[in-house]
Amino acid sequence: MYRVIIAGAGTGAMTLCGQLIRSGKVKPSEIAVIDPSPLHYYQPGFTILAGGLRGNSEKIKSHMDYIARDTRSLFHPDINFIPKSVTGFSPSSNKISIGNEEISYDHLVVALGLSLDYDKVPGLYEALEDENSPVGTIYQFKYCLKTNRLIQSFKGGQAIFSQPNQPFKCAGAPQKIMYLSNSSWTNSGIRAKTDIQFYIPTPAMFSVPIYAKELEKIAKGKGCNLHFQHLLTKVDHKKNEAIFKKGDEEITVKYDFLHTAPPQSPPKVLHGSPISNEAGYVDVNPNTLRHNKYDNIWAIGDCASCPTSKTAAAAIAEAPVLVNNICKVLDKAQPNAKYEGYTSCPIFLGNNKLMLCEFKYQGELDETFGGQTTPSTYAYYLVKDILPKVYFSLLPKGLWYGRNSFFKPKYN
C-alpha cells in the first residue's frame, strides 16, 4: 500500500513528485513511481539536436547529459522506483497491475504520456529503420540522430515536411525542424537547389489564429510551399514516395528528404480501461485534473483528457495545481486550484530566432513577455541553453514552477 502511486516517469511525473515531496504532506517512502524506461529524455531537445543547434550526431553522442539522464536519478532516493510496465487498472479496489502483481494506493496519478504509432502510416517504420532511406523524425532519440545526419548531408532536391492529425506532442515541432533545416541549407549554400514543401492536415499553420497568421507569413517568406488539409497516409521508401490524402483525393509526392511526425495516441494499457474515456485518455476534470468518477485518481501530462496542446510546458503548469489539490484532499478539504489550459510552444525559426507561443484553453493568449508574435533572439537562447539546465537540475527537486519560475503559485 502506497499513499501515492505515480504511473509513469516523464516530465509531469518528475515535476509532480518533486513538488509533492516538498509539500511535506507525503513522505518519499510513501510514494511509488512505475516506469520501465532506463533513460529519461528531455524531449523538447530533440528538435534542437536534429536541427544541428548542438552540432553533428557524433558530438551529440559525446554530450548525452544535455538530452538524457538515468531515470531513477531524477527522483528522490527514498521513493520506491519500480522499473516495470503498468499492465492494468482496478480503480474500484484501488489497485494497479504490474504484470501478475497488484499493488494498492490511496491516490493514483497517471502520467503515461503518448505512444508513437508508426504502424498507422504503412512503410514509415521501415523507412526510419533503413539507414539508407532519407526519412527522419524528431520524435525518438535514435531517429533524431538520423535526422541530424540527413539534414547535414543533404545535397538538394525535394524536401518534404509533414505532420499528423492532432493530438500529438508539441504541435509546432514539425515546422520547427523545417525552419532549422531551411537555415542549415541556406548556410551551407544548397538552399537554392532545394524545394521545401510542408504538408499539414489542418486548414492553418497553428491552432491559435494570431500565431497561425504570423507563421504562415514566415514560412512563405522563407520560400516554403504550404499544402493545407493534406494527411500523410503511406511511405514507399523503395521509390522515395510519400502518399497524402486531401479529402477523397490521393496524392503521390517524390522526395529526396522526408521528415514527419508519427501519429500518436494514449498507451494501449489505457484503451478500454475503466479510468479512460472512449479515446483512451484518462477521464479527468480539465481544471482540477481529478478523475470524473474516481475521486482518488488523477492525471497529468499528455495522457490526460484535457483539451490542451500536448507539451512539456503544459505538464509543468499542471503539476502545482495537481499537488495543491491532492494535498487538499489529504487534509479532507475540497480541491481549489484550477488549471486553465496554459501551454507553451517555442517555435525555432532559424537564424537564432524563436517565436514563443503561449496560450490557454480556447486559444486565449497567455504570454509571459507580451508581443510574442515577433521573433525573439532572447527567447531563442532561453529555450536552447537555459531551459534544459533548469529541466534536469530544478524540476526533479520541486524547485521550478514553469512560467512562475521559483515562485510557487498561490490558490484561494
UniProtKB/TrEMBL annotation:
Cofactor: FAD
GO molecular function: FAD binding; quinone binding; sulfide:quinone oxidoreductase activity
GO biological process, one term: sulfide oxidation, using sulfide:quinone oxidoreductase
Compartments, record wording: Mitochondrion
GO CC annotation terms, alphabetical: mitochondrion
Keywords: FAD, Flavoprotein, Mitochondrion, Oxidoreductase, Quinone, Transit peptide
Family affiliation: Belongs to the SQRD family.
Protein name: Sulfide:quinone oxidoreductase, mitochondrial
Natural source organism: Blepharisma stoltei
Lineage of producing organism: Eukaryota, Sar, Alveolata, Ciliophora, Postciliodesmatophora
